[in-house]
Specification:
With 265 residues, this protein is of the alpha/beta class. The protein has two domains: 203 residues, NAD(P)-binding Rossmann-like Domain (Rossmann fold), CATH 3.40.50.720; 36 residues, no CATH class. The chain is built from eight helices and seven strands; from the N terminus they run E-H-E-H-E-H-E-H-E-H-E-H-H-H-E. Strands 3-2-1-4-5-6-7 form a seven-stranded parallel β-sheet, with helices on both faces.
């Protein structure tokens, strides 16, 4: 480990790594010297991202692995493949997830959609943790960062499935922090607020359609709810992840780090 490469020789797994916050997090971890396993369902996008990382940050390696994080056999096989390639697992960043129905009150929320978003966001966070933990214990420590959200810090009108899933991720995180502290494994969440990117564009468009507003109005409404009056960038979230997996955060565990432009104040 050096000051320039604080994650040199560390092995990181990032779920949902092909795009968005996952891709940004993978970039930052590679920049800091880590070998990075890129897990997700889009094989072509993962392979392209791995190639780009290896060209941009030589001296360490990337491994694309197709994996549905809700399928335990696939998750177990993915972690085994990473450990076989790199000798273990030190860092896990769970960014894979979804949003579920937008602007849908609970009495109109399809039960199957509720189950689906819990499966993706909660089970899809739990399973990578479950199968990474033995490798981290064998290495003598580790870092887990789960992506929650500000909708897991308060109630969220008309998003009962999504909000419930993010509260559950926070509960899982705190429980794991207690269990894994004796093994020198820290477990934290990053909680972004409205974040610029393709996912937010889809949410705004659907919210605008259902409310009969222009997308620009919806963007302005979201921004006005924050102290800083603006959206978060994906790089802001990536920087929080980067900090939590760094040596500087070795005594931070079981906590939620809001990256929210001052929404939850």
């Amino acid at each position: 480990m050096t000051r320039d490469l604080p994650l040199a020789d560390k092995v990181a797994v990032v779920t949902g790594a092909a795009k968005g916050i996952g891709a940004i997090a993978a970039d930052f971890l590679a920049q800091d010297g880590a070998h990075v396993a890129l897990a997700g369902r889009d094989e072509a996008a993962l392979a392209a991202k791995a190639t780009a990382l290896d060209e941009k940050y030589p001296g360490r390696q990337s491994l694309p692995v197709r994996c549905d994080v809700t399928d335990e056999e696939q998750v177990a096989a993915m972690m085994a493949a990473v450990a076989a390639r790199f000798g273990g697992v030190d860092i896990l960043v769970n960014t894979a997830g979804g949003t579920g129905p937008i602007e849908t009150p609970a009495h109109s929320y399809p039960a199957e959609e509720f189950r689906k978003i819990l499966e993706l966001n909660v089970i899809g966070t739990f399973l990578p943790c479950k199968h990474a933990i033995p490798h981290m214990i064998a290495r003598g420590g580790g870092r887990i960062v789960n992506l929650a959200g500000t909708s897991g810090l308060r109630g969220y009108r008309n998003r009962s499935g999504y909000s419930s899933s993010k509260w559950a991720v926070r509960g899982l995180t705190r429980t794991l922090a207690l269990e894994l502290g004796p093994h020198d494994i820290t477990v934290n969440t990053v909680c972004p607020n409205v974040t610029n990117g393709a996912r937010m564009d889809r949410i705004v468009a659907e919210k605008a359609r259902k409310l009969g507003k222009a997308p620009e109005e919806v963007y302005a409404d979201f921004a006005a709810q924050t102290a800083l009056g603006r959206f978060v960038e994906e790089t802001d979230v990536g920087e929080a992840v980067r900090f939590l997996v760094s040596p500087a955060a070795r005594n931070i565990t079981g906590h939620d780090i809001p990256v929210d432009a001052g929404w939850d104040v």
